[in-house]
Amino acid sequence: MDEILEQNRRSWNAAAEAHASHRRALAGFLRSGGVTLFPEERELLGDLRGLRVAHLMCSAGGDTLSLVNLGARATGVDMSDRAIELARELSRKTGLQARFVRSEVCGWLGAVRERFDVVFCSYGVVCWLRDLDLWARGVAGVLAGGGRFVMVEFHPLADMLDGGWRLRRAYPSGGERVRLEEGVGDYVGESGEGLAPGGYSPGVRGFRNPHPCHLYRWGLGEVITALSGAGLQILELREYPYVNGERKLPGLREVGGGRLAPPEGVPGLPLMYGVIARWQGRPTR
């Protein structure tokens, strides 16, 4: 693993522990049949009963085990050692069966020989990808004929805004690499009940990540072009004028159902998007 990936892995290992400290009730929630996915993901995913689902960048496994509760045969993949340990522990506590693999996602996609009916990922995926084309080809390569790719992601427009909701940065493009000295933050703790559907625990306070991380800035058009070029037919592209759960910007206001919209007086703008794509059987470029 190269040094940038290794730095990101260390940063996620540290953050995973803090995130889990706020979700101590999650095992009971899942054991009772609870689902951590938001309505947007569930709608895009559709009926999963009996389907083989690969969950990329699965973190500590709560969403992966929610897929199991929806009837899927799920495999979760994440580069963080600690996240995968926590996911396996959560699987044992809940009695829900899923396979969890510790691997960098593009490496896993290029090596695995299995085929899946659905490949799924959500919220904070694209910013960790150094090579969109490699990722998209990998997604296509593990889909069975007619299989679907489903993603819900933060809209790149939000990356242009500062804390006062003013445009301060250029629209993301070209995979520009950004080093964050503060590393992966405790966004679970900062979001409270929004990202702890089983019940929020105070857990770790004042978390400071000692490990920096590296992000990549991609535009929405680049994501769609990569998927299409890998042979995936774009069936739906949806944009949402709110974000689910995570308080990514100051002043977000609750509008029901875990949704957070811009402050009053700020014009509506897309804060997340959803994609459904189907594997056509051959790349277009």
From TrEMBL:
Residues 54-147 form the Methyltransferase domain. Keywords: Methyltransferase, Transferase. SUPFAM superfamilies: S-adenosyl-L-methionine-dependent methyltransferases. One of its GO terms (biological process) is methylation. The lineage of its organism: Bacteria, Bacillati, Actinomycetota, Rubrobacteria, Rubrobacterales. One of its GO terms (molecular function) is methyltransferase activity. It holds the Pfam family Methyltransf_25. This is Methyltransferase type 12.
